[in-house]
Structures are given as structure tokens and as C-alpha cells.
Amino acid sequence: MTNAYIFSHNRIATELSLSARARHYEHYPLVKGNVAPQVLLKSSNRLHKKSQQPAPAGYSLLSLDELLLSGKPVVLVFYSPVVHKADHLHFFKVLQDRLGQHATLIILADPGNSSIRQSADLLGKLNMYVDRHNIISEAFGLHNEQNPLWNWVPGVESDTAFINAFYVISPGKEIVFHHIDYGFTFFSQAQEQRESFIRDVLQKVQTGTSAPLAFATS
Asked: What pTM, to 2 d.p., does this model score?
């Protein structure tokens, strides 16, 4: 084995390693097959439109375990857009309508996303919470306080931003579907791509239940 071969082999291996590192920003999110960690949702962290009176601090807690006791999967979305757009909330409303009574949709926004309140009309219809102090996003491996995303992603300026992600969690707390949006490109996709994505989510929700489901088609 020549020195030239060893040098070339090591260079290629290093390039591959750096490429893999850049793809996931040295974050290691939970994926399909993992067990979901505990999630506690404070009613005081729920996002409301400005005309609504927010709940008192610490008013009540809702846990992932409690949500799953219904026997329905939970679709958990981590939402941290580089630039907020109103049509993102419209997408969530479409997803929620398509899921109907067959799954619970929970959306977690990063603490720096106060601009979401500007699109007030849909907030009262969505289960959207702020992930205060990034406790939940860190548990899912989507945020690392020591490695903020502004080091990696152009347009991200907040220390609290986390990677966008979608999870389907079965009643047994197993993650049966994941989509990690490392490039922050999901919301720039065409309508056809988003519709295909919704069908994938609905299919995984169905695999997480014991009976055939009939979903809304529009």
C-alpha cells in the first residue's frame, strides 16, 4: 500500500465525514424507531391571537402520555421558519383538517418566533405552543444550545431556532414516521409536494392505529 494511496483514501474519508457533518449540523435528532421522550405542554405557552386572553402562568399541563391515552397517534411538528409566512399556518390547518379525529396535531414554535402572532386568524384553531427554553426540541435532538443553527444555516439569526421536523408518534410512544427538514426548504415546496407529504403522514397515522381509517380528502 503506497503513501499516495493512503493519503488519497484518508482525504476521501475526511471529505465524506465533513459532508455528513454539514448535512446534519452535528445535531442528532430522534428518528423512526426511537421512543419519544416525555412532552409537557403548558397552557400558558399556547399561542393565541392578540384578542384572546392568554391562560395564567402554569395554569395547566398536558403531557404526551395523556394525549396518547386516547389511542390516537400524535403528529408533532417542530416549526422554526427562517422567515415567517402566513401560508405556513394555512398548511397546518389543512393537515389538521385532513387528520380529522384520527390523530392529534401539536405544533411547537421556537421561542424567538413571536411574529407568528401576526397571523392571528388561524392561531385559535391550531394546537400551537412555544417551546419555552427549547426543552422539548433539545429532548428530540433538534436544538443544541452549544451549537446554534446560525452557525450553519443562512438566514437564521436566533439562538433559539431549532431544525424543522415532523413526527408521527404511535399510542405506544414509538416514532413511526419522521421528516427532518435540515435545509429549511419544506415550506418552499410546491403544492403537489406538500400534498404528497400529507398523504405520507396520513398513511403513517393509519399504521399507528388498530382499525382502518377514513380521512378527509380536502
From this structure: 0.80
